[in-house]
Sequence to fold (198 residues):
Amino acid sequence: MTEPIVAPITPPDPGATPAPGGEPPKTFTQEDLDRIIKERLAREQTRYADYDDLKKAASELKKLKDAELSESEKLRSELAEWQQKQADWETERTTITTEHNQQLLKAEVRVQAAGLGFIDPDEAYLLADLTEVDAKDRPKGVKKALETLAKNKSHLLKGAGAPGSPANVTGKKTASDDELLQGVRERYGIRAPTKTGG
Fold:
């Protein structure tokens, strides 16, 4: 059996008026206290009954967001990878196209140089000023560049300068060595050596 528990009583104030009806202080048994505590706990538990469910739902939502971010990051990474591959392919295509155009240009120069009578068409390719030549597809302007080279460096031509020969691109009579030497002397103010008699 349980003993009744008496609530603490403060001694009455002599100047205070007693409570109306003069009720005696309430007393509770252990069973009453247990029942009150259980009721209060039950109320609190019902108040937070969905706390575990909410906590679980929040955890699942976080997992879904993390998975979504991971998928998004994965897609971004794949996109960046494909963009890099595209840039690499474009660079490779440009390199191949440039090499192809250079080979076409060299072949065109060699064919035209041989037709114009150059001794060594490869040398003509190396010496010709090809900056004005359009090297795409079928190179244009090669003949003009080679004619300029032939005019400036006629010694690269077969038969160097005989009038009417295929090597004489300009069709003009070329100067002899003595005439060339005389022109250089005049240009630079050099006197011709005098011959001394013996």
In short: Strands lie at 5-6, 27-28. The CA atoms of residues 179 and 185 lie 10 Å apart. The two ends are 163 Å apart (CA to CA). Residues 162-168 have pLDDT under 50 and may be disordered.
